[in-house]
Amino acid sequence: MAKVTGLDGIVAADTDISLVDGTQGHLVYRGFWAKDLAVQYEYEEVAYLLCNGVLPDQAQNQQFTKNLTESRQLPEALKRLLDIIPREMPIMGVLQTAIAMLSGGIFIWPPTKEQAIRITAILPTIIAYRYRMQNGLSVIEPKPELGHTANFLYMLTGELPKPAHVKALGAYLILGMEHGMNASTFASRVVLSTQSDMASAISAAIGAMKGPLHGGAPTEVIAMLDAIGSKEHAEPWIRESLERGDRLMGFGHRIYKTKDPRAEALREVTEALSGNDPWFDLAVHVEKTAVRLLAEYKPGRHLYANVEFFAASIMRAIALPTELFTPTFTAARVVGWSAHLLEQAEVNRIFRPQSVYTGPMPG
Ligand SMILES: CC(=O)SCCNC(=O)CCNC(=O)[C@H](O)C(C)(C)COP(=O)(O)OP(=O)(O)OC[C@H]1O[C@@H](n2cnc3c(N)ncnc32)[C@H](O)[C@@H]1OP(=O)(O)O
Ligand SMILES: O=C([O-])CC(=O)C(=O)O
């Protein structure tokens, strides 16, 4: 008999935060289409919406933005930790460690909006600090007059970012913020359900996020596109890969059995930014070819490009190095994790599913 794996179709919680409709290809955040929010609103406004249930009015937005801006600075103890973690440790491991270190202080059960703001604000600063340190560059302090997205790019590069890059990255961050009971969100809710603290729950989520089947996929997408190299190599490369039984990174989804609306939206955003770029042209060609060949090799499985495929394109278009792809996704998803943890605390009961023993009995 086939082993039970993967919890397909199991409902782990009711949620007011988002609807992921895998049949229609719809993603709704608290009653709004995520793709509309991505192009019409700023990071701060959608973060407020996800954690509070309503879009902010002007005064609420100003206060929330101020709170986020004032929480960006790294405590000295955290800087010392970032300085001594071995250089070769990937940024996701560093993030996981750094967030776990916040545990205690204000980070005690129950989770609060103040804690959510602190972690959301500090995460990009940790990423930028560590990225620049690892690359032998001087650390850039946050700039209070810049919004969350622009400040992230500024802390990475030391330059004021182009408005088109801020807009495109903002759209990606909003589309990456929240996605129902995905693996990292589930991991965070399980940890919190023991009445552990928000920092520990988010540290666990980061550990789940970095796997190549989840948030680690965009780095692999770049590797795939680099290996394919040109349009004429796409079909033979993909066929060979599928014949070996490999998975194509950036394709397939547990819930979407039609197009992932985020991939569609991100393709449009990237096209507006770099429509004539040969690399983007190759990505679009690879997407079409892969979808056709996946239908041939895996009939009836309904495999399409997922958010990670065009996340890779957008991050490449704004010149983010590949080592920052998954950390940047994390800087988006921290909002969804926070909203879920606040929701979990309202109805908390420890998660404890069953397993079926299939081993031998004592003789
Ligand atoms: C933000 C995100 O997390 S988005 C997802 C990012 N991850 C990726 O892009 C990695 C590649 N994709 C995958 O590995 C999967 O599609 C997942 C992990 C996203 C979903 O996995 P599951 O829902 O468990 O799909 P499952 O493993 O049951 O696959 C069903 C069938 O489709 C095939 N399949 C699924 N995805 C792919 C893929 N990317 N390439 C080739 N075949 C695939 C499987 O081999 C399986 O075939 P089979 O029925 O012949 O055994
Ligand atoms: O929902 C999932 O399983 C994976 C995903 O797309 C996400 O977390 O954004």
Automatic annotation (TrEMBL):
Provide the catalytic activity annotation: oxaloacetate + acetyl-CoA + H2O = citrate + CoA + H(+)
Q: Which organism is it from?
A: Paenibacillus agricola
Name of protein: Citrate synthase
Keyword Transferase listed? The answer is yes
Q: Which Pfam families match?
A: Citrate_synt (PF00285)
- Alphabetic keyword roster: Transferase
Q: Which InterPro entries match?
A: Citrate_synth-like_lrg_a-sub, Citrate_synth-like_sm_a-sub, Citrate_synthase, Citrate_synthase_AS, Citrate_synthase_bac-typ, Citrate_synthase_sf
Entry keyword Transferase:
yes
- Which pathway features in its UniProt record? Carbohydrate metabolism; tricarboxylic acid cycle
The Swiss-Prot or TrEMBL record describes its family as follows: Belongs to the citrate synthase family.
